Amino acid sequence: MRVAVLHGPNLNLLGTREPEVYGRTTLAEIDAALVAAGAEMGVDVECFQSNHEGALVDHVQKRAGEVDGFVVNAAAYTHTSVALADALAGVARPYVEVHLSNVFARERFRHRSYLAAGALGIISGFGAASYTLGLRALIEHLRRSA
Ligand code: DQA
């Protein structure tokens, strides 16, 4: 089993970016924890970050044939990107939407997600742990539906 993790814009700055909101864990640390958690469950995990919407769309299209599902933190594109929502719908792979912060406890514009309707579910507000929780949820779903 193989899972792709997608990180959207500005998540490359984790560790120093608004640490009171997003914590101090770096993206490299999050990726390492995801690869380790995947390995414990016998799942290969690959991680990709881009600040560019089209690059994220390209990556979904490119990797969909090789992976069983996605864990997606689209960051600001969560709230704006029809293109990314269409890409995920178009490749028909299950995905879990994750956020470090609780987006529903923040500004109104963060309450809308273009990805949520197509997602298996959303995990939001547990800091870096949102990713590992999302990975576990996706793997459990994939195992149940295998
Ligand atoms: C985020 C929440 C988004 O609203 C924001 O634009 C981000 C990060 C999160 O992980 O909490 O960049 O997706």
Word description of this protein:
- The chain has 146 residues and is an alpha/beta fold.
- It has one domain: Dehydroquinase, class II (Rossmann fold, 3-Layer(aba) Sandwich).
- It has a 5-stranded parallel beta sheet with strand order 2-1-3-4-5, with helices on both faces.
- The longest helix has 16 residues.
- It binds 1,3,4-trihydroxy-5-OXO-cyclohexanecarboxylic acid.
What's the quick description here?
The protein has 146 residues and is of the alpha/beta class. The chain has helices at residues 19-22, 27-40, 53-63, 82-91, 129-144, and strands at residues 2-7, 44-49, 69-73, 95-99, 121-124. It has a single domain (2-145), classed as 3-Layer(aba) Sandwich (Rossmann fold).
Write the layout of secondary structure elements.
Layout: E1 2-7, H1 19-22, H2 27-40, E2 44-49, H3 53-63, E3 69-73, H4 82-91, E4 95-99, E5 121-124, H5 129-144
Parallel strand pairs: 1-2, 1-3, 3-4, 4-5
Helix pairs in contact: 2-5, 3-4
Bound molecules: 1,3,4-trihydroxy-5-OXO-cyclohexanecarboxylic acid.
